[in-house]
């Protein structure tokens, strides 16, 4: 499959490093608004074609799947452009700025009979399946509560505090704890409470979120762009608890009994960068004629966006494009 990368920033480099090492994927094209930048990117990663405009690349009939990795605020525009040119789309998280945009993308993809999926890589990583299997085996009994956090000192990155680029901790890092909670407890959320602190530009710098599920389970989540955190996810059950090391890129899973004895331990599988799993899932879905990946269903992407829309409304945060 010939794959193209729309955007040539930091995250694009990780995807290029990934697909240039995959057997069934050809790193075919890259596009940037700066032709010299695209050409330098293509040369570095051995990509066949470089384009100085997104439209020009999308007019290339050989492009089959496009990875969109521009800033959040452009995801909707660029995905719609890809779909208009009849290209399947894998888009970096967050999928869009809000749920309304996500619904429109999925509706247009369905109309065009094309795949559109969110590349939230933690949904695709093999360690997610390991966690599922541990929970299914009921080693810790009935899971009742969890905590998860993800914090990085990235306030100095200009886009993080720019409302015009949909900045803030929530869309960039808070999306991971929310997805972690839903991967463990499902999507039947009854109540959400939260608080945040803001930057001088009015976006959230740090936040605390509590999700209460209909069965009484509770998830306490935290994200911030002001500091580092241990990035752990802890799942507490009636017979023990699970320690998930780094919810953003699993470094291991430890299972403990009620006496705090370590009873099971799992290490990550070897992989290229981890991004190959979302590419493989997209490739498989396309081959099967499906419009979504089972690892990241459209309904889950929309629900996460709805949760974040509600949180921002509670915090009084809106973006100029809204």
From TrEMBL:
InterPro entries tied to this protein: Gfo/Idh/MocA-like_OxRdtase_N, Gfo/Idh/MocA_domain, GFO_IDH_MocA-like_dom, NAD(P)-bd_dom_sf
UniProt key word Signal: no
Domain Gfo/Idh/MocA-like oxidoreductase N-terminal: 2-117
Sequence ranges assigned to domain GFO/IDH/MocA-like oxidoreductase in this UniProt record: 132-243
Pfam families attached to this UniProt entry: GFO_IDH_MocA (PF01408), GFO_IDH_MocA_C3 (PF22725)
Oxidoreductase recorded as keyword: yes
Alphabetic keyword roster: Oxidoreductase
Any GO MF annotation of the entry: nucleotide binding
PANTHER family from the UniProt entry: OXIDOREDUCTASES, TRANS-1,2-DIHYDROBENZENE-1,2-DIOL DEHYDROGENASE
Family stated for the protein in its record: Belongs to the Gfo/Idh/MocA family.
Record-given protein name: Putative dehydrogenase
Organism: Sphaerochaeta pleomorpha (strain ATCC BAA-1885 / DSM 22778 / Grapes)
């Amino acid at each position: 499959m010939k794959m193209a990368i729309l955007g040539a920033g930091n995250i694009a480099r990780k995807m290029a490093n990934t697909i240039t090492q995959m057997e069934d994927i050809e790193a075919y094209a890259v596009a940037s608004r700066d032709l010299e930048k695209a050409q330098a990117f293509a040369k570095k990663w051995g990509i066949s074609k470089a384009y100085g405009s997104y439209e020009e690349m999308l007019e290339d009939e050989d492009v089959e799947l496009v990875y969109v990795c521009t800033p959040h605020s452009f995801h909707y525009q660029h995905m719609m452009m890809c779909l208009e040119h009849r290209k399947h789309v894998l888009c970096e998280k967050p999928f869009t700025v809000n749920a309304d945009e996500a619904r429109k993308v999925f509706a247009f993809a369905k109309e065009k009979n094309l795949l559109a999926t969110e590349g939230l890589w933690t949904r695709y990583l093999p360690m997610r399946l390991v966690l599922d299997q541990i929970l299914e085996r009921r080693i810790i009994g009935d899971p009742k509560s969890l905590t998860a956090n993800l914090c990085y000192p990235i306030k100095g990155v200009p886009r993080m505090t720019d409302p015009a680029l949909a900045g803030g901790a929530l869309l960039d890092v808070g999306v991971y704890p929310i997805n972690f909670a839903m991967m463990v407890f499902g999507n039947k959320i009854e109540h959400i409470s939260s608080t945040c602190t803001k930057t001088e530009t009015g976006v959230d710098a740090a936040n605390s979120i509590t999700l209460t599920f209909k069965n009484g389970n509770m998830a306490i989540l935290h994200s911030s762009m002001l500091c580092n955190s241990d990035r752990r996810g802890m799942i507490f059950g009636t017979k023990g608890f699970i320690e998930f090391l780094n919810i953003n890129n699993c470094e291991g899973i430890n299972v403990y009994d009620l006496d705090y004895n370590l009873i099971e331990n799992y290490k990550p599988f070897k992989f290229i960068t981890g991004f190959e799993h979302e590419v493989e899932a997209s490739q498989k879905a396309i081959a099967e004629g499906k419009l979504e990946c089972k690892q990241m269903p459209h309904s889950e992407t929309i629900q996460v966006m709805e949760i974040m829309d509600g949180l921002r409304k509670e915090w009084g945060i809106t973006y100029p494009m809204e």
